[in-house]
Amino acid sequence: MSRFVILLGGALILTPRLEKQVRGARAIAADSGMAHAEPLGLDVELWVGDFDSTSEDLARRHTKIERQAHPLVKDATDGELAVAEALRRGAKEIVLVGAFGGQTDHMLGHAGLALKLALAGHRTFLTSGREEAYPVLPGTRTVSLPDATRFSIIPFADLKGLDLENVRWPLIARNVPLGSTLTLSNIALGPVTIGLKSGYGLAVAYPAEIGP
Fold it and tell me: Residues 172-202: pLDDT tens digits?
């Protein structure tokens, strides 16, 4: 199995869509992200971190899980260390669960990490159950979404030649500069096809707002 779920310490809203997305995947927890394992029904094979945000109760309930301890002062977040371990174990697809909410600096850092993974050829996305984010890189990709999902593209660089299909307000070969809000709050009409000539960013969607 080359699909890994990385459990981060951000928000989690349990939905049927999220349960389906993580079903059957291998799991690695990053520090307090271990709290998401039981609600998702995941068997964690490794618990990574400095454990500064792990409660005594959480630690007590999971004494049998293998731990990889790191010092508090280090050069990467617990989430990035967990991702690195997943890659060493053969991950080709990585789902960052609990990637929203909590600390904004960590959230943005892990968004950048998702882009880095995508640039290296690994399929990846971030989710809290309520919201999801997918790297947008040059080329064409389709994001599978329910009809009527609120959907945005956030530029992390100047976007050139952006195409958006199967949305309420489609775009053809549009240039979207860094800092533009042109591509916020569109509506998906089902699976969305994104084409891009150059640049990179994130596609952010809110499928949980419309129910199962």
Answer: 999 999 999 999 999 999 999 999 999 999 9
> Within this chain, do residues 159 and 201 fall inside the same structural domain, yes or no?
yes
Compute the residue count for the chain.
212
Contacts by residues 41-48 (CB-CB < 8 Å, ≥ 24 positions apart): 42/5, 42/7, 44/7, 46/82, 46/85, 48/78, 48/81, 48/82, 48/85
- The pTM (predicted TM-score) of the whole model is 0.93
User: Number of folded domains in the chain?
Assistant: 2
Examine the domain organization and report whether 120 and 159 are in the same domain. Answer: no
Supply φ then ψ for residue 106, to 5 degrees: -70, -40
Residue closest to 205 by CA, chosen among 189, 188, 182: 188
Domain boundary among 129, 158, 176: 129
